[in-house]
Amino acid sequence: MRNKKLMALSLVAVLAFTACGKKETNEPTPTPTVAPTETPAATETPTETPAEPGTDGSGEELGATELTSNETLDKIHEEVKAAYGDNYLPNMPFTVENLDEMFGIKADWYDAAIAEGPMMSAHVDKLIGIHVTEGNLENVQNALNEYQKKIATDIQYPMNLPKVQASVVETAGDYVFFVMLGTIDEMKYTEDSDMIKAFGEQNQIAVDIIKKNIEAK
For residues 201 and 211, what is the distance between their CA atoms, to the nearest angstrom? Predict the structure, then answer.
């Protein structure tokens, strides 16, 4: 009798344990909560706007007032370029500010001008033509003569010295020109004096064109 009671109690305990196990396994497993991650806002890459001509990128005007030419200067300019062809190296126009700062020629000394120099610092070729206003002929002559002396002493590339020494300041009527143009076969010459003479002959090509056009007026 006692054994039957023990067996009955054991059976009840087993059934109770099984019921608890089923209850636990039937409960839904909670889904883990994942904290939302913030997507960083897209950073816009700044784009650079090219600086406008005549500014330094800050909007400040640097001073690039174009020179005003006239019919005579335009004709001389075109004929000189044609005469030298590929050997005409000045391809950068100077401005009103350049004439003042580089050559000492004030804006009220002239009413028309052409002025060009080289893009590369290794070259020195230049053509400058100034139509002088009344009373300023000597001012322009003196400024170009001073410039001629200065570049001969401050020259950056000694190989250009003969060309600089052969440069010409030419006055024709109320026009003043600075001419430093042309090329020579430097290997043909052993003396600087001969090179200076050869460069002088090259400059004479432009001088002849200048005189022809101004004397024809």
Answer: 15
